[in-house]
Design goal:
By secondary structure, this protein is an alpha+beta fold. The protein is built from two helices and eight strands. The protein starts with a helix and ends with a strand.
Length: 130
Amino acid sequence: MKFTVGLKIFITIIATIILVFLVVFVNKKYLSETDGIIYINIVDEEINLDKTDEVSFSKGEKLVDILKRNYVIDIKDGFLYQIDEIKSYDISNKFIQIWLNDKLANKGIEQLAFKNKDKITFKLAKVGDY
């Protein structure tokens, strides 16, 4: 079966359109799965730790779920005892503060609301020093 030049061009154009459609569709699906990013900052001045990570999230996702997916955390009774390198199991002496956009948060990781490009800081603090 011989193909004419016109038919070859037509098939090439159709194949290109299908390929472009598939690439756009796959990228759109991927982009819709991540609705934004937040910056997670972990600070412990005693060990000179100050690291910031860019973490993606999906609409409706809670901070506690994002932390479980990206960090080693320990939570008991809604209280955060560990996030990666910083730990505080003696809360009468030290605890992990939560800051949202450089302001002390008034909610914990299970209730804290955030939006795209927010900065959430977890800082080990001594009781009475805040």
